[in-house]
Amino acid sequence: MILFHLLIDSTQHPILPFGPNNPRSCSACVFNARSLSNKLNELHQLLYCNKYDVICVTETWLHDGITCGLLDPNSEYSILRKDRVVSHGGGVAVFLARHLHFIEVTVDQSFADLELVCFDLLMPTCKLRFLSYIGHRTVTCLLLNMLIH
């Protein structure tokens, strides 16, 4: 699991409305689940006890039979996900705390087969683009090029 914490310098930027405990920060983590459906208790602890603002998960192994309500029964997060549809395994999901302002980014149709979630996190002075996906290095270069231009 990779954890990161964004801090905003309030002397140069206005205070950001990230959360009740620290209005100038955003906490996040990234991890490879190798199936969320058999780790729901651990997921719920991560969602409700650790209180991350953004959680990115790869290898979710989810399908349309597993609803977002099952993943987040308290409805504290917006969930963006891209499940693998042709075979078992794969998939990505992003959990965004409901107090965050974000826009899901529509990715070019040439990348439709990728397990990819992209969104912009909107802040008063800027926006941050996040990309969570499963792919190969050559695809990474193409995606980064597309997102930058």
Quick summary:
With about 150 residues, the protein is of the alpha+beta class. The protein is built from three helices and eight strands.
Structure description:
The chain has 149 residues and is of the alpha+beta class. It has a single domain, classed as Deoxyribonuclease I, Chain A (4-Layer Sandwich). 17% of the residues lie in helices and 34% in strands. The chain is built from three helices and eight strands, in the order ββαβαβββββα. A five-stranded mixed β-sheet has the order 1-2-3-5-4, with no helix packed on it. The longest helix is centred in the C-terminal third of the chain and has 12 residues, at 137-148. The two termini are 30 Å apart. Residues 1-20 and 137-144 have low confidence and may be disordered.
Shape: globular
Question: Can you tell me the residue ranges where pLDDT is under 50 for at least 5 consecutive residues?
Answer: 1-20, 137-144
Strand order of the largest sheet: 1-2-3-5-4
The number of helices is 3
Q: Helix-strand pattern, N to C?
A: EEHEHEEEEEH
Assembly classification:
single chain
N-to-C span: 30 Å
Q: Please, how many domains? A: 1
The helix content is 10-25%
Q: By helix and strand content, what is the structural category?
A: alpha+beta
Mean pLDDT figure: 78
